[in-house]
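Hi C.,

You asked whether I'd gotten around to modeling the 518-residue construct. I have! Everything is below, sequence then structure, no commentary in between.
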Amino acid sequence: MSEETAYSADDPRLGLLLEGIVRLAAGDLETRIEVSAARDEIDAVIMGTNLLAEDLQIIYEELEQRVEARTQQLNDARLAMQHMAMTDPLTGLSNRSAFSAALAEAQAAGLETSTKPAILLLDMDGFKAINDSLGHTIGDKVLETVARRISGAVREQDMVARMGGDEFAVLLPDVSPAMAASVGNRILAALDGLIEIEGHHLRCGASMGLRMADPGVSADDLMMEVDIAMYESKADGRGKLKAFEPSMLHVRQMRNQLVAELKEAIAGSQLVLYYQPIIRLDTREIEGVEALVRWNHPTRGIVMPDEFIPIAEETGMISQLGGWVLRAAVEQLKLWRSDPLTSSHNFSMRINVSAPDLQRLEFVEEVREALSASGLDPAALVLELTESAVIQGNALDRYTLSSLQRLGVGLEIDDFGTGYSSISYLRQLPVDAVKVDRTLLAALGSDPSQPALLAAVLQLIRACGLNAVWEGIETEEQADYLLSIGCTSGQGYYFSRPLPEAEMTEQLKLHKSWPIES
């Protein structure tokens, strides 16, 4: 027994076995120990160790494969999440974040190669009306169609992104201003055609700004300036491309200043109302006054509404402005009716209502509260609405109009005959009268066919069960002709220009018939 132990301790295989176990423990799973021909107990241990090494190697390789597969899955998920984070889910285009990153990359590449990228920014014309009247499902399909048309009009190397809402941008690397304008006009042409969706034939063009990405200009400044150019395009008639010019920045700065000042004007006491009478053509008595807002600017004097009303509409201040006009006009009518020197005139107050007000559920309640505070009969208030606001209106507009009619106020369509008219739709609206646009009367006396046209328009209005008020009366001949064809109400400079409150009050005290004899 002692001889076997000595023999075993001296066996070189034990050293090989120990050395192999050490290598295996160190992670060398390819280690294998040679088995002798003796096939004894030591060889059995060696064979078991080799089998264990093979099992460990298989397990390790499988583990490596799993780790590699899991790593690939994680990487694919990361790439998918990155793609989702940089992609607009509706159109599949790049989104604002992706566009910003690509713009920065294009600017950096341009510095190295002395080339310039360009940015095109476009906003859809008339998309809101589609969304409001036909719903967001149709609106989304319009945006998908627009995205495809833009993508089909650009070059292969250009990047198209949806920036949000109905605003899209195109990044054009390495282009001249002429080439950038060419691509832009190609996009506008592609968007000009009809879009057919679920039986609806829609037209939705775009306005576009162009800005070359000059070196040294930050990406934020570039996007601000191309946005300025785009809005200049929209203000210039839509469907056009405008390249950014430095003078546009000055105009924008002036506009921003005007916006801030208008906020102060509405909150303060800078707004004033002028009043223009509506006259009965047969008796020449006053039957109503239209309240027209003016801005009494502290340094510029009286600012006309053409200058600040569009800004109020664009910035969302139009409802605040309209609310002030409503309250001030109703309060003024109350004062006239309570003054013994002016109360003999029994006339209504007319105020203009913006399209956004028809979209506000609280508007009807605001009208109710203004009338309640003044103690006036609702019939003493007539709300004038533009044709474009009611003809293209949606269910909410019609609900608001019906609610106002139930309240008892008068409803009148303003600017009738400016191109939006739909006679069949007019008959369905809960309105009482239309005010015919001054352009139809202007040609009387110069166009031989105009008298017959005016008579036909009046008969058409009456056939719809509505009353007519003719605006733009500037001569006695015009007033007499309108009376001769059966029109009973009119407004215009022949009778009176819009007057400030003090002058209007004085005229009401002194005169019963209009025009006022000097």
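If it helps when you're writing up: DSSP finds 20 helices and 17 strands in the chain.

Thanks,
B.
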